[in-house]
């Protein structure tokens, strides 16, 4: 049985999309739990407690203690140091407007969009990479360091050429100025530490996979297999999201749904009742 994980961010109550993600992780392997709370502003201990309660209510047990990303800054720092000492990172002081302006310069044509938004036009690549790793500034991975990539998605072999990575994904942020790390780096390091063999998560994160595979290669970490699952949608076909006031699991529970009925319903259809 592969080791899988459910990795919610404690920034609100779980909704049916989270329940489905946890069910998939639980169905396909031995589920581990990771609380993704690098965003200290939006993460709240009460949401973390509510997530654990909801998982228990759903009857989806996990193996071992939950990993909490806010306890893992030293591990992220060590990974960043390794990339920095190899000369693969550069500090970037651009804001969103600078990036859009540089990417939209007339000679550039229409700005290209990658998984993190506009593909970074390389403005700060020439910044000094000497000395100790700087803090308090965003760090980007020089995409030219990325090799040809290969991984499996849903059991199917996938590849991406180094040049495609550089052109369509580019120099991704691996440390945010405000967080000291970034989603892509934290997830890659944590999946390795938790011994994850099969990453299951929503299809909305599918485009992040080559970034994680690239980081695994540069950090000498094993590559798990990937399985991106379909998303739960509302009756209008929009995927559930906190900002759309997706009904929380607690709302269904209070309305008299049993966990068994709710799980059966989700297995049948990914349209929220
Ligand atoms: N923390 C992310 C979320 O709640 C999931 C990240 C992942 O599974 O890689 O959407
Ligand atoms: Zn920059």
Q: What is the percent of helical residues?
A: 25-40%
CATH class of the largest domain: Alpha Beta
- CATH-defined fold name of the largest domain: Glutamyl-tRNA Synthetase, domain 3
Oligomer: single chain
- Beta-strand proportion: 15-25%
- How are the strands ordered across the major sheet? 1-2-3
Query: Residue ranges: pLDDT <50 for 5 or more in a row?
Result: none
Q: So, CATH architecture of the largest domain?
A: Alpha-Beta Complex
N-end to C-end Cα span: 32 Å
Main sheet properties? 3 strands, parallel
The Cα radius of gyration reads 20 Å
Structural domains: how many:
2
Any chance you could write out the topology, listing elements then pairs?
Elements: E1 3-6, H1 16-28, E2 30-35, H2 45-58, E3 67-68, H3 73-85, E4 89-92, H4 96-103, E5 113-114, E6 117-118, E7 138-141, E8 149-153, E9 156-160, H5 162-168, E10 173-175, H6 183-193, E11 198-202, H7 209-219, E12 225-229, H8 249-254, H9 259-268
Helix pairs in contact: 6-7
Bound molecules: glutamic acid (GLU) and zinc ion.
